[in-house]
């Protein structure tokens, strides 16, 4: 049975808080500078509610003996993972022009891993990254926040811990629609003591009018969030997906802002979140995966 817990979500705002070490993945430098907020979430305890397509992007620590959480992601094929582009670009801080250089990219990817199969039963399995696919950038302040990761080896699937999420080609999230979001963002039970979960958490969220996120919404993005519902930090790169099975992913958690407000005698957090639309990038995804991953039309 699933019980509701107050969990924390951290928006990884790499551009503002990363140490700026090119080719280095000192994740502690990022985590120590993040502003921690509390939003109610649900911890996955029931196998019937499990999301076997969840994955996460991890980076090697200073000592080189473990990999820390960077971003959430989804499995979209046997060799392919979907996440947010800022999960890669953000590692370079103010030096994002270096991110496209072959040597720098190669050295950086050697320090990254994808982990799949994380559940309450135990940790998942690590996979090395072969290459990443990003959309062309016209400048270094505005870019398409989507990234496809290709693994060196194929994932072996089982019924509980690993699976593939379907991608919706013909779905345009509209204000008022409700979807689920999931991610590996940090959480807390009391708003004071913070912990990184070994598995993902999830919650329902409503799509909002663009004006709700007008200060930071980009092209091919939409807005979602509200009172005590939303996403932050380690959730970046995770999915917004259909609440009914089969699960179809319609968005990627990108970024946002959280307001502390008082409504009457109640203190609330009002989350404004930007999400990358999946549908406009279906041709891009199918091209870079050489047809191994295909979007589908859905009839809802």
UniProtKB/TrEMBL annotation:
Q: Which UniProt keywords apply?
A: Disulfide bond, Hydrolase, Protease, Serine protease, Signal
GO aspect biological process, one term:
proteolysis
Identify the Gene3D superfamilies for this entry: Trypsin-like serine proteases
- Pfam families (UniProt xref): Trypsin
Residue ranges annotated for the Peptidase S1 domain, each copy included:
21-290
InterPro entries assigned to the protein according to its UniProt record, in alphabetical order: Peptidase_S1_PA, Peptidase_S1_PA_chymotrypsin, Peptidase_S1A, Ser/Thr_Proteases_Immune/Dev, Trypsin_dom, TRYPSIN_HIS, TRYPSIN_SER
Record's signal peptide: 1-19
Q: Which family does it belong to?
A: Belongs to the peptidase S1 family. CLIP subfamily.
Name by which UniProt lists this protein: Peptidase S1 domain-containing protein
- What organism, scientifically named, is this protein from? Panagrellus redivivus
